[in-house]
Design goal:
Order of helices and strands: EEEHHHEHEHHEHEEEHEEEHHEEHEEEH
Structural class: alpha/beta
Number of domains: 2
CATH topology of the largest domain: Aspartate Aminotransferase, domain 2
Distance between the termini: 43 Å
CATH class of the largest domain: Alpha Beta
CATH superfamily of the largest domain: Type I PLP-dependent aspartate aminotransferase-like (Major domain)
Radius of gyration: 21 Å
Strand order of the largest sheet: 4-12-11-10-7-5-6
Helix content: 25-40%
CATH architecture of the largest domain: 3-Layer(aba) Sandwich
Largest sheet: 7 strands, mixed
């Protein structure tokens, strides 16, 4: 008999009833150190008082009116995003997937509105994850994402990861944009180098293409800058945001330059819930916290602490781990054993890490995690490694 909840998730045998900071608690009071933060969503940890206060205050005032009317909180959040990024305009969504849908539509509408309706193709990189909608899985292209869901939405061209020559070879008269994650998340925490990011911007400028950056996982302060592309000193034409922007409340955004958004007029796109008063109240509070003095500098300091510690753990357990990769507080450990062995051993050590492609485990802790909690996490990851080593020894005896 099928479960009341559609069984599309391979869930761990865990459930949590309470959270505080980087810690989660089960019904029996067992505590787990959450180094995944809800897949990078809980950027200020669990039950952050500023976010709770913003939600409670707005909840007592007004929950929803729809986008038939002006939404003051939506306007305020849009202004914050415009003031702190390259963007001139913002479309609010409920999720990263919806932000990607808006970006794809915006790209195609731009060229259609400018007399080039045949320019519909978007170049993406192998290993990408752009959500699970029809456009998202077509953009990603991986077999795991698309098998059984054909026919796929046409108009996406996939090239090897960060391969500039392949990008150049893929450009035709139908090419409209290049879309990528500056750091692939689900793809295994693979960073696109500063040189490649700059080269992609130059290619787009040379060929009159739009550059679309998916910063759903790597944005909102996770790398020590507000957005990861800032490290390369370039700007996109369109960018998608989600996860950390709501701190745990469903919220996303598609932000763009005035030029890129010029085709999106009244009636061309919409959302019933997107940018509702509750979500945007939390989003405004998140932006205020992340942009506060010293916050991003502290992310960089904490990331150095975590990375150095992980390098030590990897060096001490060469039969379990291979290397550390990533940027800021978006890190991964490349594993020699199956990554789910590390995840499961982590459950026993009461630390939560997240599997990803290329046999890595991801660490996406809250951006305000304390140094002591980082040390605790390192100790627990090492305990997981020691337990696995003992299992290997027991089998070999």
């Amino acid at each position: 008999m099928i479960s009341p909840v559609l069984p599309t998730y391979a869930r761990a045998p865990l459930s949590f009833v309470k959270g505080q900071g980087p810690w989660l608690e089960t019904a029996d009071g067992t505590r787990y150190l959450d180094m995944g933060a809800g897949i990078g969503v809980c950027a200020l940890g669990h039950a952050h008082p500023t976010l709770v206060a913003a939600l409670e205050t707005q909840g007592r005032r007004l929950w929803h009116t729809s986008n038939l009317y002006d939404v003051p909180n939506q306007q305020a959040l849009a202004e914050k995003l415009v003031e702190s990024t390259f963007a001139d305009t913002v479309f609010m969504t409920n999720s990263g997937t919806e932000a990607i849908e808006c970006a794809v539509k915006m790209v195609r509408k731009y060229f259609s509105a400018n007399g080039q309706p045949d320019k519909v193709e978007i170049i993406t990189f192998e290993g990408a994850f752009h959500g699970r909608s029809s456009a998202g899985i077509a953009a990603s292209g991986g077999a795991k994402m698309v098998d059984g869901f054909g026919p796929l939405l046409p108009g996406f061209v996939h090239v090897p990861f960060a391969d500039i020559d392949a990008v150049k070879a893929a450009i035709t008269d139908k090419t409209a944009a290049i879309m990528l994650e500056p750091i692939q998340g689900e793809g295994g925490i693979r960073s696109v180098s500063t040189q490649i990011m700059r080269a992609l911007r130059e290619i787009c400028d040379e060929h009159g293409l739009l550059l679309v950056l998916d910063e759903i996982q790597c944005g909102m302060g996770r790398t020590g800058k507000l957005f990861a592309h800032e490290w390369a000193g370039i700007t996109p034409d369109i960018m998608t945001i989600a996860k950390g922007i709501g701190g745990g409340f469903p919220l996303g955004a598609c932000v763009a330059t005035e030029r890129a958004a010029s085709g999106m007029v009244a009636g061309s796109h919409g959302s019933t819930y997107g940018g509702n008063p509750l979500a945007c109240a939390v989003g405004c509070a998140m932006m205020t916290e992340i942009l506060s003095d010293g916050f991003l500098e502290n992310v960089s300091r904490l990331s150095g602490h975590l990375r150095q510690g992980l390098e030590g753990v990897v060096a001490a357990h060469p039969d379990v781990f291979d290397s550390v990769r990533g940027e800021g507080l978006m890190l991964a450990i490349k594993c020699k054993l199956p990554n789910m062995d590390i995840v499961n051993a982590g459950y026993d050590a009461k630390v939560l890490v997240i599997p990803a492609a290329d046999n890595v485990v991801r660490l996406l802790p809250p951006l305000n995690i304390g140094s002591k909690d980082i040390d605790d996490a390192l100790w627990r990851i090492e305990e997981a490694a020691i337990a696995l080593e003992r299992q290997i020894e027991a089998v070999s005896v």
